[in-house]
Specification:
The chain is of the alpha/beta class. The chain contains twelve helices and nine strands. The protein folds into two domains: 199 residues, Aldolase class I (TIM Barrel), CATH 3.20.20.70; 74 residues, no CATH class. Helix content is 39%, strand content 12%. A nine-stranded mixed β-sheet has the order 6-5-4-3-2-1-7-8-9. The chain is globular.
Length: 330
Amino acid sequence: MMDTNDSATAATAIWDRFPSHQRLAINFTLTCNLACAHCIVESSPQRTERLTPDDVKSALTTAERGGKKHVTFSGGEVFLFRKEMIEVITFARSLGFVVDVETNGFWARNESMARDRLAPFVRAGISGLSVSADAYHVRYFPVRRAIDAVRAGRSYGLLTEINFCPSQEQETDAQIIAELNAAGEPFIHNELLIRGRGKDLLQLDEGRPVAELPECDSLTTTVHATGDVYACCELDISTDAMKRTPVFLGPIDSTPEGTAEQREREDLVKEFYNPDSAIYFRKMIEVNPLFTELSADRYQSICDFCMKALGDPKRIESLRETVKERSATP
């Protein structure tokens, strides 16, 4: 058994300091110096997709007008594109965003080098640093780099977090956790997601009924490196299922009319998972015939349920009609 108590329980996700409706995630690139076996966006050295600085600035401007206050830049690996990242981080700060970056920490060969590599990002205005440490990453370099990266970040006054994702290599997992604990470094214990390459790592069980599914906590507006915008940060680019639901908000370069439609789709998705909403999914399962039929099925995750429930145009129209009716009621 792995002992995760001391460090895991002490850690909190740094982006939780903002509610989801104020957060923006920008998946800047799919280019990465690694090709981790669990990567949900399937990034690698062979992937070339990435946004331009103008794309990012457009997305940030739209998001700021929509009330967003926090942005996380991720990849792929954003530290491979220092010049472009410094440009967009500086622009984000000029709009008033609080800025965090996610990285695999490859650049932290020691704490001194980590400080040097991090310094330009700090000057540009980042506030938080999120690093990964797990069996998928230690295949490429030791856990010590994650430790040195976050320590360098804290030396600059940044909020930091280390993310650990369990693997099938229990001995390796235990060694990683022991090293983090020995260093006194708290970490987030994430679950392995059935997305992207992660699908090949898990043996799928029979799933759970809707009543046993957790609430959705991933509704953060996300701009993907392909130029597409989603209402969710748990992207699975290996399937078109998302694009057949309102979770897909459209291209980054939408017209003002398109932006209004994006907001309507995003609001619909968020209300579907809002316990206080008239179209909350657990209510729909009980009262709406188009949704009650889903209660007999079993699902691997809340995302699996989302793709099925919101992939039917008739169900979407029913949700819209319910919203309209409730809005018209005095």
